[in-house]
Amino acid sequence: MKIDAKGMHYRELNERIHDAVLKGIEEIDIVNVLGQRYIGTGIGQKITINIYGTPGSDLGAFMDGPRINVYGSCQDVIGNTMNDGEIVIHKDAGNVLGLSMRAGKMFIKGSVGYRTGIHMKAYKDKCPVIVIGGKAGDFLGEYMAGGRLVVLGIFGRKKDPVAGRFIATGMHGGAIYIRGDINRTHVANDVCIEEICEEDLPILRKDIEEFCKHFEIGDIDSILSGPFIKLVPKSLRPYGKMYAY
Question: How far apart are the C-alpha atoms of 237 and 171, rounded to whole Å?
């Protein structure tokens, strides 16, 4: 099924998408997308949505199963409280990516803005994953409670650092893998900076293989051989002493 979103209000576009889902459509191509919000929000069915253009904020919010391919860049708050599924972005993404993301995967070929992975969490066998091919802005992994962030730094502007300032502020769960050099004074004091170990390699390889497959990149071993560091929290309750109870 194909939808031409040129000049279409986001409410009408989302009504048409949800109507197609109810009819059992398995794949939707949406062309001429320009800032329409909430695409894929709240959908629980296994459906593929291919977006050509630039979707607006809250793409894939609360979604629980779809696969969304974006052949362009995205705005902010992508994957807000996402519960399952996959979002693949072929260019850049904005701020607050993966807010409170609970499961599923996101792959971004380019760079992302600030507060990526804020409040990400994991529960039992559910582990959200975000892999970024480019670079990340300030507050990466802020208040992160679980899941995995991988920043590869192989794309993006040369003048930008792989990750910005205030990295992992308030982090109390999960792991952040960063390829390349960072300014260690920009990492929160309550976070450990470690070299990756043998146990990390299969995890990274799987994530990088999926990333390379989505974007038709063949140099997996070269990417994996790059210098990586791993960030993990020193405490599961970094602010516990601030409260009386």
Answer: 9
Structure tokens of 238?
A: 């970094």
DSSP code of residue 110: S
Residue type, 44: G
Residue 198: how many CB atoms within 10 A of its CB?
6
List, for residues 166-224, the tens digit of each pLDDT value: 999 999 999 999 999 899 999 999 899 999 999 999 999 999 999 999 999 988 999 99
DSSP 186: G
Instruction: Provide DSSP, 157-216.
Output: -TTS-SB-SSBTTT--EEEEEEES---GGGB-TTEEEEE--TTHHHHHHHHHHHHHHHTT
pLDDT single digits (tens) 37-82: 999 999 999 999 999 999 999 999 999 999 999 999 999 999 999 9
Entry field: residues in the chain = 245
Q: Which of 159, 120, 152 is nearest to 136 (CA)?
A: 152
Q: Residue 100 and residue 136: Cα distance in Å, rounded?
A: 17
What is the C-alpha separation between 229 and 173, in angstroms, rounded?
A: 16
Q: By CB neighbour count within 10 A (0-12 exposed, 13-18 middle, 19+ buried), where does 220 fall?
A: middle
